[in-house]
Amino acid sequence: MTRTGTSLARLGLTESWAEATLDELGWWVGDRPADGAEEVMWALARSPDPDLALRAVERLAHAASDRNEFDAALRSDPGLRGRLFALLGSSSALGDHLVTHPDRWHRLVTDAPDHDDDARGAMLRAVGADPAAPPAGSPGGSAATLTGSEAIAALRVAYRDELLLLAAADLAAVGEPDLPVLALEDVAARLADLAAAALQAALAVAVAEAGEEPGRLAIIAMGKTGGHELNYVSDVDVVFVAEPADQAQTRLASRVMRIAGEACFQVDANLRPEGRQGALVRTLDGHVSYYKRWAKTWEFQALLKARPVAGDPELGAAYAEAVAPMVWNAAGRDDFVADVQAMRRRVEEHIRPDHAERELKLGPGGLRDVEFAVQLLQLVHGRTDEALRSPSTLEALAALADGGYVGRDDGANLAASYRFLRLLEHRLQLQRMRRTHLLPSQNDTHGLRWLARAARLRPDGRHDVVGVLVAEWTRNSRRVRRLHEKLFYRPLLTAVSRLSPDSARLSEAAAAARLGALGWASPEGALGHLRALTSGVSRAASIQHTLLPVLLDELARSPDPDRGLLAYRRVSEALATTPWYLRLLRDEGLVAERLMRLLGTSALVPDLLVRAPEVLRLLAAPTTGHADELARDPAEVAGSLRATVARQQDPDSAAATARSMRRHEILRVACGDLLGVLDLEQVCTALTSVWVAVLQATLESVERAIGHEPPPARLAVIGMGRLGGAELGYASDADVMFVCEPVGGASDHDAVRYSTTVAETVRRRLAAPSPDPALVVDADLRPEGRSGPLVRTIGSYREYYSRWSQAWEAQALLRATVVAGDADLGRRFLHMVDPIRYPAVGIDAATVTEIRRIKARVDDERLPRGADRSTHTKLGHGGLADVEWTVQLLQMQHAGDIPELRTTSTLEGLREAREAGLLTAEDASELTAGWTMATRARNAVMLVKGKPGDQLPRSGRELAAVAAAMGYPPDGDPGVFLDDYRRTTRRARAVVERVFYGW
After folding, report:
1. For 518-616, where are the alpha helices, taking DSSP H only?
2. Do the Cβ atoms of 330 and 297 come closer than 8 Å?
3. What is the rounded CA–CA span in Å between residue 410 and residue 372?
4. Start-to-end Cα distance in the chain
5. What backbone phi and psi angles, to 5 degrees, belong to 376?
6. Region entry Adenylyl removase: which residue ranges (predicted)?
C-alpha cells in the first residue's frame, strides 16, 4: 500500500485532513505504512465512517495518559481495533464520552475484565450504595452516599461507561469480522438490565435525598424494558406501587424520575392507571381495584410486559402475581376486538405522511406491526397456553410457532425481519444517542452508506452497499406487512384445510378462540366456511389460501363478519367456474378490500352479485384521469338499456334482458352507495333512471309484440309518487297512471281496450317472480283507486277530475310527470291537470283541514303494530311522510301564483319554499336534514337486510350494519347513529307541527 489519493479512498477516507492525521499518528512513514500500522488502517477502513473514527481516535490519542501504550495496543490487539474503530465510526456521542474519559479504552482490550455482568453493581457503587445490602425502597434498604448533582453526574458517567462496553461488544464484528457477533436479543436484554440497574441506583439516591425512612416502593418496568428488549435510546416506561401510597412516596417516585431522567434516560409513568391524570403512586390494592373495574384493553396489553425491576422485591412480585390473571383474560372482554382495532388505527394514524416510508417503528411493515400482531395472538391464546406468556416479542413469536399458532416458516421469517429492523433502529440511535426510528432519506447517500456499514451489510455484486440497504429494507418491510396481514388467519387455514400431517397445525379449538376474539359470533360456523373454501388441491383452493388471510382481516373490520364470510363462500361457490373471479381478487387489492366491506355490511349485495358478477370489475381503482366506474352517468346507462332491450325479438327475452340490466345497475348503485362513491341525490337519480328505462323498454317491446298496425291508441305512462319525484329507493314500487287517446278514427272503447292489454302485459311481465328486488308497477293512485279502470282516455281523466276529484287526488298529482310512452300525450295530460294540482287561488281552509285529517289518519292506521315512531323512516315523526306532506301542502296553497314551486322533487320544493319566504332558512334546513336522513336510513335498511323495511333495527349487528351503511365507523357505537337520527328527525317534526299542522 502506498500513500496516494486512491489509497486513502480505498480506506474510506474522504476528508482533506486525513493524510496529515495519519502522519501525526505515526501510521505512515514516507510513502508507506509504518510497521504494524497496515492492519490498523484496514481495521479503520472497516469502520462505518472511517473519517469520523479517525478524527475521534486522534482526539483519544492526545487525551490518553500514555499515548505510546495506546498506540502499541492498537497495533497488537485485533479485538481492540475491531471494537474501538467500529464504536468510534458508529457513535459520535460515545466517542465523545470516551475522549472525555480516555482511560476507558483499557476496558476494550481483548483480555479486559468483563464488566457487563455487573451492571447493577457498577451503578450502585457509582452513587455510593452497597450492592450487597437490601435494595432501596424496601425495609432496611441501602441508600446512596452521593446526592444532588454529584450523584447525577456519577450515575451519568457510570451509565455511559456500561453503554460504551455494550455498544463496543455489539459493534465488534463490524470492525473485525473474526470477532463474535452479539445477538440482538442479548443486546436488548442487557440494555433492559442496565436500565433496571440505573433505576435501582436512582432510587438509592432518591432515598438518601428524602432523609427519612421510606415505606415500601416497587418500580414495575413496562414496555420494552419490561420485555427485556430495550433500545439504546428509549423512554423507560414504569409504574410505581407503594405501601403506603402517601405524599412521601409520591415525592420519592418523582425524585427517581428526575434523577434517572437527568442522568440516563427519560422515565415515563404515563402507563399508570388513568394515565397522566392518575396518581403517580398507588397501593397494590388500588392498582388491582382499578384494573378490575376501569381498565381498558390497551392497559392489559401494556401489562403483558410488566416486570418488577427495582425497589421492594416482595411488593413487586405481589403486583406481578396480582395482575397476571387479568392480563390473560383480557381477550374475553366484550369490547376486546373493537378496542384492539381502534388502537391499531390510532397507531397507524400517528405517522407523518412524509415519514411513512422511512419509519422503522410505526410505518407499514415496521416494528409495531410485528409487536402488535404477536401481542394480540398472545392475549388470545395465552389464556390457555402458558408457554406463550413471555414479555419478549421474539420469545413469544418462537412460542407461537412452536405451538402451531403461527406457521414455522412465517414465524422464522417474521423473526428475521424483526431482528433486521431492530438492528437498523439500534444503529440509528447509537449515532448521536438520540431517540429516532427514521431512516435517512433517499437523497442522503452518506447517511445510508454509514447505516449500511454499521449494520454489517456488504455489496452483493448487483448493488453497492447503499443499494443493498434499500433493497433489504424494502424486502423486510414488505415481508413484515404481508405476514402481519395474514398472521391472524393463516394458521386457521392450516388447521382446516387438511394439509400434510408434518405441517405446523393450529388446533380447531384454538382457531375458534381466535375467530371469537376477532369478532366472529359463530367461530365454529366460520371454520366450516374456511374448510369448504380451502379443501382440495385445485388451483382455486390454492388461491383461496393466499387470499383469505387478507380477506378475513378486512372482514373482521366489518359490522357482521359472520354474514360476510358466509356471503363470500356463497359468491365463491356461485362463481367457481368464472375464470377471472379469484384472479381479480388476487391481483386487485382494492377490489378485495371493497368486496369484504360490502359483504360484511349488506345482504342485498351478495344476492345480486351471484347473478351479476361482472360488477366486481367496477370495484377496481379508477385509472389515471378517469372517474370511478361505480359513478356512471345515469342517462348513458338508461340509453344503453333501452337499446339492448330493443334488439330482442320477443317480449320474454326483452323482459329478461331488462331485468338483467336493472340487476346490474342496482348492484352498481348499491356498491357505490355503501362505499361512499355516490351521494343520496346520485343514488335516487340512478335508481329512478333505471326504473324509467325498464318501463320504457318493456312498454316498447310489448307494443311491438302485440303487433296491432296501426295501433288504435296512443299510450302514455305518468310517473307518480317517488317515481315522479325522481326519488326512488332500492325497495320502491313504481307508482304510475296510464292515459290513452284514440287515433285513426278508433273509438274510446277500442283505445281503452288496446291500452289496457298493453298496460296489463307490462305489469305482468315486470312482476313475474324473480330473486331480484321486485318490479311492482302500482297504479292505485288512479281515479277511484283499485276499483277504477286501469287505463282512461285523456278526456275521461278531464271529466273525472272536473267532477269528482278529491283533495288527496290533487295532492297525488303534484308528483305527476311523463316517464314512458307517447311524450306529447303525456305533456297534454300534465297541462290538463295543472289547474287541479296548482289551483290559482290556492286551497281553502276546509281543504287544509281535510289534508291534515287524512295525514293524521294515515299516520295512525298505517304505522305497524309495535313499531317505534321515533325510528320509523316513513311514518315516524320527522320522517319521509311528515316532510313530503308539508312540502305538498305548501305547493297546493301557493304554487298557483309561485311557479317556482311547481316541482315534483321534495328537496327542490323545500329550496323554492325557502326562496319564496314560505319557510325560514332554518326550518327548510331542518326539514331537508330530516328527509335526507330518513331516506338514506330507509335505503340502508334495504341494503343491510336485503328486503324492504321502514323500521330501523333497535340493536345488534343489523343496527351496526345500518350505521356503517350510513357512513358511521363500522367498529364504533351504533347508538351514535340512532341518537343522530332521533335528534335530526325530532327537529324536523317540530317544524312539521308548526308549518303543516299549524300548532
Report:
1. 523-534, 539-556, 561-574, 581-587, 589-599, 604-609
2. yes
3. 16
4. 104
5. -65, -45
6. 1-492
Q: What are the grid coordinates assigned to 20, written together?
A: 496529515
pLDDT tens track for 850-901: 999 999 898 888 888 888 999 999 999 999 999 999 999 999 999 999 999 9
For 193-306, list the strands marked E by DSSP. Answer: 216-221, 236-243, 267-268, 281-282
State which amino acid sits at residue 684.
C
Average pLDDT estimate for 262-270:
96
Distance (Å, rounded) from C-alpha 333 to C-alpha 355? 35
For residue 53, which phi and psi values (nearest 5 degrees)? Answer: -65, -40
The percent of the chain in helix, strand and coil, each rounded to the nearest 5, is: 65, 5, 30
Query: For residues 423 and 45, what is the distance between their CA atoms, to the nearest angstrom?
Result: 21
The domain locations on the chain are 839-999
Q: What is the pTM of this model?
A: 0.63
User: So what's the pLDDT on residue 501?
Assistant: 32
Which of 390-404, 618-632, 779-793, 869-883 shows the lowest per-residue confidence on average (mean pLDDT)?
Answer: 618-632
Cβ proximity of 663 and 616 under 8 Å: no
In this structure, the chain runs to a length of 999
Among 707, 714, 767, CA closest to 738: 714
Cell representation of residue 834: 295543472
Q: How far is CA 551 from CA 470, 548, 556, in A?
A: 30, 5, 9
- With vertex at residue 457, the alpha carbon angle to CA 455 and CA 458, rounded to the nearest 5 degrees, is 155
732 φ/ψ sector (left φ>0, alpha ψ -120 to 50, else beta): beta
CA–CA dist 922, 913 (Å, integer): 12
Question: Does the domain at residues 839-999 carry the CATH identifier 3.40.30.10?
Answer: no
> Which residue type occupies 367?
L
CA-closest candidate to residue 552, choices 509, 503, 585, 510: 585
Strand partners for 217: 242
Q: 460 is written with which cell numbers? A: 452483493
- For residues 813 and 731, is the Cβ–Cβ distance under 8 A? no
Assigned C-alpha cell, 424: 437498523
900-953: per-residue pLDDT in tens? 999 999 999 999 999 999 999 999 999 999 999 999 999 999 999 998 889 999
Q: What is the pLDDT of residue 482?
A: 83
Instruction: Calculate helix-pair angle for 50-63, 37-45, nearest 10 degrees.
Output: 130
How far apart CA 921 and CA 916 sit, in angstroms, is: 11
Q: Which of 434, 473, 435 is nearest to 455 (CA)?
A: 473
Contact 383, 331 (CB under 8 A): yes
Strand duo 713-719 + 817-821: pairing: antiparallel
> The C-alpha cell of 152 is what?
447525577
DSSP 775: -
- Inter-residue contact 484 to 373 (CB < 8 Å): yes
Yes or no: say if 452 and 174 are a contact pair by the CB < 8 Å rule.
no
Q: Could you tell me if 135 and 207 are in contact, meaning their C-beta atoms sit under 8 angstroms apart?
A: no
Kindly give, in sequence order, each residue whose CB lies less than 8 Å from that of residue 315, ignoring residues fewer than 6 positions away: 138, 216, 217, 218, 241, 243, 284, 308
| Beta pairing, strands 777-778 & 281-282 | unpaired
Pairing of strands 236-243, 281-282: parallel
Predicted confidence at residue 553, as pLDDT, reads 75
Which of 241-255, 349-363, 452-466, 501-515 is the least confident region? 501-515
168 half-sphere exposure, CB direction, 13 A CA radius: 29
The answer to whether residues 93 and 431 touch, using CB atoms and an 8 Å cutoff, is: yes
**438: which strand partners?**
359
Cβ-contact 663, 691 below 8 angstroms = no
CA separation for the pair 388, 400 (Å, rounded): 6
CB atoms inside a 10 Å sphere around CB 169? 21
Rounded CA separation 827/817 (Å): 8
Cβ contact 232:167 at 8 Å: yes
